[in-house]
Amino acid sequence: MSEDHKRVLEQQLWNIANTLRGKMNADEFRDYILGFIFYKYLSEKMELFANEILQQDKLTFREINPKMADYAEYMDAIREEAIEKLGYFLRPEELFSEVAKRGLGENEDESLFDVAKTNFILEDLQKILTNIQLSTMGTESEDDFDNLFEDMDLNSTKLGKNPDDRNAIIAKVLSHLDKIDFGLEDTESDVLGDSYEYLISQFASGAGKKAGEFYTPQQVSKILALIVTTGKTKLKSAYDPTSGSGSLLLRIAKVVQDVAMFYGQEMNRTTYNLCRMNMILHGVHYRRFDIKQEDTLERPLHMGMTFEAIVSNPPFSAQWSANPVHLSDDRFSQYGRLAPSSKADFAFVQHMIHHLAENGTMAIVLPHGALFRGAAEQHIRKYLIESKNFLDAVIGLPANIFYGTSIPTCILVFKKCRENPDDVLFIDASNEYEKETNQYVLSEAHINKIIDTYRNRLEIDKYSKKATLAEIAQNDYNLNIPRYIDTFEADPSIDIDKVSLEIKILEGEMSRIDEKILSFCNELNISSPF
User: Fold this and answer.
1) What's the CATH number for 210-479?
2) CATH of span 3-202
3) Closest CA to 277 of 88, 41, 97
4) What does the DSSP 8-state code read for residue 422?
């Protein structure tokens, strides 16, 4: 599919999403529209898969019905194959398009949509969404589909005051979606995945502070992905301990040929569901991702594992328990200090360092305060740099590029086996951005400059510098970027003699003008303004 087709698809989906907006906020109608798109995706994948199986029988999946003598035999065979290959199963009558047609009822012209002409489908639809999950029970994919649709309450009064109103709006949305071609036959294209990502970004832009819980702007995702994949075309594993919608992990997949396995953990249940949907919808097979739902710092669920690429945009300066019991936890014990309870930034750093493979790279987004705050955070910075020498780079980003906050941020890059162990690269990209409405954005040129500077460890006047470990130690492990990169711009010198001469010339010109005005006033026999 072309870029034009993708843009059309994105606009179509966004228009349909706004059909649901009503009195709901961005969080709420996001869950419904993304859930319906996901259901349509699962249906179309199921139908394509089943049609391929039935090709030798010269049948299509929709032609299989209970009146056939061998109906049960067909269903059992297709179900077994689907569970093995797709991880779930849908019956022909449960396909999205079948439900959409039933819901539309006698409405032939959607512009004249009549509630009275719709068929009631809410109960059937709720059962189908439940059946998708039930089809995985006791199978290898059970955890990946568990309660995926739990945030889609079809009986919510936010969809309508009564069941008929709710049924009408759902029928209308399904009918609109049914007319859109997702192009799943084109296995080389990920247009639907990109469009899904576009929708998530649109919801993030309207979600205020909550946006940071589930989405990282694409330009930042790209920087993180390009950093952790430097010098590699294939990865054994990628991990995000605060996975959100999964956008960081999926961005890694776009910049390398292959990622064998994706791992992640997300505390928010709704966002956790969104992450799993996003993975599946981007064509990541259920066997290739392991996303868990829990508090990463308090109850980590991938202990004992290390990962080749780690990325994260954790909640900035979040609170955590900082319970002294964590000092016996392998993630924190060697440091002798815990991150403060009011600011978990370095607790996430310590967690990620613990899971980083010897040949791996990790990149984490943090607020600027993490670079220079004292006490326990200074102690942890010192240990990472002086004792371990894991810090590879510090990259300053512009303010106002994250949804829900205007604070400036930075990226810290860590490696356990550094190719350049004698210095740390500092990059100040905080002043290079473009402004779009209320948000700042990084252009491709800005991103390429950051990545080129990082990969080649370039020193550019007022932009980047390699600071020695001794220099960092002299600064008491304060990583504030202006301490290492001089961005001072001297005011241009002023030629006093030239300015004085210009003033004298102006005074002479003003005197001549005054004389002319006086002569005009005398000619007109009017009083002079002087």
Assistant:
1) 3.40.50.150
2) 1.20.1260.30
3) 41
4) T
